[in-house]
Amino acid sequence: MRLKTLALLTLTLLAVGCSSNDTKELEPAELPKFNAEVQLKKEWSRSIGDGQGETYNRLTPVVYGDQIYAADVTGLVVSMDRLTGKVNWKQDLEVPISGAVGAGYGLVLVGTLRGEVLALDVSTGEERWRSQVSSEVLAAPAVNGDVVLVQTQDDRLIALDIDTGNQRWSYESSPAVLTLRGTGAPLLTNQLAVAGLSSGKVIALDTQRGLPVWEQRVAIPQGRSELERVVDIDGGLLLSGGTLYVATYQGRLAALDLESGRILWQRDASTSSGVALGYGSVYLSQASGTVEGVDERSTTVLWSNDALARRQLSGPSVFSSYVAVGDMEGYLHLLSQVDGRFVARTRIDSAGMRAHPVVEGDWLYAYGNGGKLVALTIRRQD
């Protein structure tokens, strides 16, 4: 069993666990009752093969143009009209997909457990190229029109030529001894390749040669055991203007200057699912199940909702005036951006929901662990 899987299993037990053999494990919080203020209307629903599978994948769909692209763990990739759900094409790659889905510049990109990166034609689904990298790809590749950037399980960043898949450069770093299973998706601009590492650091590299531009430690490992010292950055990075937002497990939520890596502000936090931004606030799902809204200027917690404790929440997404999160039982929750109160709830997939919701305009796309992809819009209550 790989160390990443071992760490994940142990940390999961700790999250719900007990301090002694005589202490009963805490159950996930029961769903609170509330008066719905808006209605989530299902526009269409599709089944995407076997969904996330049993290996704790987060195969998040991606919207590109007027299409939405989704993949399942067995290698099925599907292109659909994002407004109607009509299937444009399907491609069965017959390889175990673990990093999905990236899209841009005419390509749909996925990574595999075998350490491969596959590029498909965005219009037809035909394979354009396939490239072998150093180890499993557990997050969606990024693309900027010149290179495809991949982050592997062993904390390497690899740039591939967008046309051929040939390796341009590779950057190696030393992964932590124990980590959560997964990596955050890297981020690409025209000049910088940016990624969060299992060591709690963020690294920015020159896109042309892969040389370091800056490095910033966001979280410092603390504690006596290796489990206590896990500070992975697994939820990906969020870029808004020139500010980069990042959060770590058992560490911190921070805002960094993109050009220099300088920390603009930081506060204690613990999450493996990333952050969202809206209305001047940063939103995050803490590992405990608490959802928080933090003022992006003062770092003050504006509101905190702990009613979903231990429900293994997905990362948050901003949807209209609300914050959307999924949970382990497949419920999608809408919370007010103003004060964190519940305003709507619907069940997406009884197998649960790990991938964060995808928002495009007035539409939200929720992808359940069992493979159910649902398109939703908001209808106001009469």
What's the quick description here?
It is found in: Cell outer membrane. By secondary structure, the chain is mainly beta.
The total count of strands amounts to 32
Content of β-strand: 35-45%
User: Major sheet, described briefly?
Assistant: 4 strands, antiparallel
User: Pairing-aware structural class of the strands and helices?
Assistant: mainly beta
What is the spatial order of strands in the main beta sheet? 1-32-31-30
* N-end to C-end Cα span: 54 Å
The first-level CATH class of the domain at 65-172 is given as Mainly Beta
The whole-angstrom Rg is 20 Å
CATH architecture annotation of the domain at 65-172: Beta Barrel
Low-confidence stretches: 1-22
Tell me, briefly, the overall form.
Answer: globular
Helical fraction equals: under 10%
Enumerate how many helices there are, as a single number: 1
Mean pLDDT: 91
Polypeptide structure, described:
This is Outer membrane protein assembly factor BamB. It is a lipid-anchor. InterPro entries: BamB, PQQ_b-propeller_rpt, PQQ_rpt_dom, Quinoprotein_ADH-like_sf, WD40/YVTN_repeat-like_dom_sf. Keywords: Cell outer membrane, Lipoprotein, Membrane, Palmitate, Signal. It is found in: Cell outer membrane. There is one protein chain. The protein has a domain of 108 residues: Lipocalin (Beta Barrel). It is globular. 4% of the residues lie in helices and 45% in strands. Strand 12 and strand 13 form a beta hairpin. The chain is built from one helix and 32 strands. It is mostly beta strands. The longest helix is centred in the N-terminal third of the chain and has 14 residues. It starts with a helix and ends with a strand. A four-stranded antiparallel β-sheet has the order 1-32-31-30, with no helix packed on it. A four-stranded antiparallel β-sheet has the order 2-3-4-5, with no helix packed on it. Strands 6-7-8-9 form a four-stranded antiparallel β-sheet, with no helix packed on it.
